[in-house]
Amino acid sequence: MTFHDALFLILATASAVSALGVVVSSSIIRSAIWLLFMLMGVSGLYFFLGAEFLGAAQLIVYVGGTMVLVVFGGMLTTRGPFDHVPVGLVGWVLGGGLSLALFALLVQASLSFVSHPRTDTALPGTGPLGLTLLGVPETPGQTAYLLPFEIVSIHLLVVLIAAAYLARAKRRPTSTHPEADHG
Amino acid sequence: MVEFGFPAFLVLSAFLFACGLTCLATKRNAIGILMGVELILNAANLNFVAAARFVPTFRLEGQVFAVLVIVLAAAEAAVALAIFLNFYNNHATVNVENATDLKG
Amino acid sequence: MLEFFAEHPGRLYVAATLLPLVPAVLILLIGTVRNLTRPYADVPGIAGWLYARLNHPRVELAGAWLSIGVMGLVSFIAVYGFTTLLYEHYLPRLSGEPIAPWNLDDTRLWNVNADGGQIDWIRFGSTPVPDAELDIIKAHSIHLGYWIEIDTTVMFAMVAVVGTMIYVFSLGYMRNELKSTTIDETLQHARRGRFGRFYLYLNLFVIAMFNLIIADNLLQVFISWELVGVCSYFLISYYYERREAGWAANKAFIANRIGDVGFLIAIAISWSTCNTFMIGALGAEMPWHGALEPLFSPTMRTLLGLGLFLGCVGKSAQFPLQVWLPDAMAGPTPVSALIHAATMVAAGVYLVARCYPLFTPDALLVIAYTGCITLLIGGTVACVQTDIKKVLAYSTVSQLGYMMLALGVGGWAAGVFHLLTHAFFKALLFLGAGSVIHGLHHEQDLRKMGGLRRKMPVTAWTMFIGVLAISGFPLLSGWYSKEAILTAAATFGVAAPSHVVLAVVPFLVAGLTAFYMFRLWFLTFAGEPRDRHVYDHAHESPLVMTIPLIILAMFSIAVGWGWPAWEPEASFLYELLNHQHWPSSHFWDDPQDPLLNAATLLHEYHLLLELIAGAIGLFGFAVAYWRYVLRTPRFHATNTEPRGFLGQAWYFDAVYDACLRKPTQNLAVFTAAFDKQSSDHGAPRSLDGLLNGIGQLAANTGRGLRGIQNGQVRGYVTILGLTVVGLLGMLAVLTR
């Protein structure tokens, strides 16, 4: 077992165990912490695969941004210090069974995947990635991704405004029909 | 270089996906469901990056798509949390079983 | 204009066919406007003014006179066409070779197919496509066209002339309908007059009939056939308030539909095998007309003929569908004369004659036997009827049987000849009966008549001519045609001795014909009045009714004449028709045609045949004279309705009632009861239950499925996951 194999095993195990933790925790904050570790594990795997930019982006956007949002959301909507929402046995059996079956099928499909001859070339670095997002193809004639990039940026802008609008603090209605204004 | 090739990543991705699906199917807390979605997106992303590494034609595309997915996941989380907060304001709970106002 | 018709004289007939459309449309228009403005009759304004102008007997009379004028013009055209064709094409060759009708060379100018004779009606391709398999040119359109032969022109002229006479006669007979309020004689209730409607139907009817006569293809014939049928339906149910009129109309319509099934089958066969509806083209495909490799198999040929004949059985009231014709007397009497004696029922016979080359020997034999049975039924039943119109109706059935028999035994010319002569004297008889009924204020019962010759002499003596003609009195038209038929039947009997019954029955029924016709005349006009009240109020009909009678009587006398007049075979019309060469298919593969031999043999004895027929007729007359003149007291008004085997018309109605109507009705009642049966708590079972159950199932399914659509994300995700698992599992299993 080489160093790389060991590294992969460690990262994969960490991610998988954390993901399992997200599922089994009944406290939302604990789930969020497990998710944090899962995201970090996946980020490690990105570095492991040689996609440094993605690994960094994962850390910054997910761990630094999305996770904070989730934790804050959890804290804002939890009514007590140990607000558990337990899952019934039926739920476990149904959801778990379903997921296990799906997992088995996906594994079967993955293992039957006939790999290409192991090309295993090093991934292009951050530079080419950034250039292709700005519309400069890596080699002339290849596709560049300026348009998706622009669409995503517009999308983000729209989402930002929408989120700010939805979550803004509202004055409670003073009318005699409080249910007339639900948001 | 690595002994664990593409299939290993696919299996890990499948496991993450299955965990996400379980979250969606069992959690009653809206934020738990959001976390299930994050798990599923990460599973997909892992596949993209692994494909970029191991399938030559996806060298760049796999990464580009992964970037897009990360960005969109962040946006999705922001909007979802805004909606949940709104819902909490009106119902004092984020239990999705209570979201039945439109049920006929 | 004149060049247009001179170029293709057949166009004259198309024009003549369409001419009655003018009065028909006018009458329809005026009637519609009048009905639309009727609500505003008392309101001042243009609608009320219009109604007052249109709601006047003069308007209706103008429509009738216009119709009569148009029919006169059509008659003129028909006679002109007949004489032209005669002088241009037939007289020069009358002594030469017979003319084969489906060989259109001789009358080319009359039947140009490419330009003028036909128009494409429905086109379903740009050009004709040769069919390599069938070795024919596939048709690329359904066309309308005309096919003018000497029998066409004669028939056309007959319908036009008889139609004109009946139009004029109706002017007097239907006068009651001119009033804006008239009293129905049977129901004694007031209603609006329907004078215009009557002429509208008559016009529509003659258009359809003319089109039927000139049509050159089966589909066009079928269209006209149905139009004729529906006009007959309208006219039978003219007094639709009377229950039996409605029933009779339904009966006629249904009986005709049964026949039409056969006609449709024949049309389908002709299209599917020969790819054509053209009668001439179909005839050319028959092996006895020189087709080397016939497209038809022998079975198909026979089926085609039998199908056509089934249609004719319905239309011409042949056994076993003859039951509708006597009931159709519920319509006005001029209608009975026009439709149910002279023209419409003649259409069936005419079609058989027109399609003569299409009938195989087997089919012809069926036709002959059907005609034989029909003429026997009609002749026997007519002897006991007490309604003056019913006697004539059964007499029509019998005479139509004669025509069919003649056609069936190979006497083509004899059948068509009788069709023509019969049209004239049967129209005369019916119009005479109409005159009697009109003069007696709608009394139709023979038992209440008697002695009327003193009160209505013109009617009596013109009808006497008709009676003589139909009975086969020498030198009258009926004599020539009946002799021709009897000779044809006897010839066939000699040529095919196993079918001798076909020769014997017509001879015997000739005596019956004389008996029942003289019975009718004696009971109506001879002797002393049996019902004083009826007799006292009787009056002769006005001139407008008697003049058509006189004209028709002259036709009935003279239409069969030839030179020398005492030779039945020398009748000009018969000779002319005989010259239009339709070989019988009975013995087509026999080089020594037995029919020809028999004809030669019988020619030696034709005087003897005439004597036998005359003696039988005389015997019938004698019996009628003895029974109804010498022993007249036997027949009183106290007599009950005709009953028994003959009175019930061989129990046909009873048998149909018991075998067809009752079981159908019982089945319907049973089914309805079965369906309406309900379970204990009132919900219907069986059919209703089944249908309700289907609805309930859908409702329950929806209700059940609604539970899944519960708005819970978890449920949706679970279903989604299950679906994915199912699909992937399927994939994994299938690609193993």
Summary of the model, kept short:
The complex is a heterotrimer of chains A (183), B (104) and C (736). Chain A has helices spanning 3-24, 28-49, 52-77, 89-111, 126-133, 146-166.
How does this model look, in words?
The complex is a heterotrimer of chains A (about 180), B (about 100) and C (about 725). By secondary structure, chain A is mainly alpha-helical. Chain A has helices at about 5-25, 30-50, 50-75, 90-110, 125-135, 145-165. Chain A has a single domain, classed as Four Helix Bundle (Hemerythrin (Met), subunit A) (Up-down Bundle). In chain A, helix 2 packs antiparallel against helix 3. Chain B starts with 5 loop residues before the first helix and ends in a 13-residue tail after the last helix. Chain B has helices at about 5-25, 30-55, 60-90. Chain B has one domain: Orthogonal Bundle (Helix Hairpins), CATH 1.10.287.3510. With about 725 residues, chain C is mainly α. Chain C has a two-stranded antiparallel ribbon. In chain C, strand 2 (about 130) and strand 3 form a beta hairpin. Mean pLDDT of chain C is about 85; it is low at about 100-110. At the A-B interface, helix 1, helix 2, helix 3, helix 4 and helix 5 of A face helix 1, helix 2 and helix 3 of B.
Break the fold down into its secondary structure elements and pairings.
The complex is a heterotrimer of chains A (183), B (104) and C (736).
Chain A: H1 3-24, H2 28-49, H3 52-77, H4 89-111, H5 126-133, H6 146-166
Helix pairs in contact in A: 1-2, 2-3
Chain B: H1 6-26, H2 30-54, H3 59-91
Helix pairs in contact in B: 1-2, 2-3
Chain C: H1 2-7, H2 10-18, H3 21-37, H4 46-54, H5 57-90, E1 118-123, E2 129-131, E3 136-138, E4 141-145, H6 150-173, E5 182-183, E6 190-191, H7 195-214, H8 218-236, H9 243-274, H10 279-284, H11 298-315, H12 324-327, H13 333-342, H14 344-354, H15 361-382, H16 388-408, H17 412-439, H18 457-471, H19 477-495, H20 501-525, H21 532-536, H22 543-558, H23 572-579, H24 594-604, H25 606-630, H26 644-647, H27 652-676, H28 686-708, H29 713-734
Antiparallel strand pairs in C: 1-4, 2-3, 5-6
Helix pairs in contact in C: 2-5, 2-7, 3-4, 3-5, 3-7, 5-6, 5-7, 6-7, 6-13, 6-17, 6-22, 7-8, 8-9, 9-11, 11-14, 11-15, 13-17, 14-16, 14-17, 15-16, 15-20, 16-17, 16-19, 16-20, 17-18, 17-19, 17-22, 17-23, 18-20, 18-22, 19-20, 19-24, 20-25
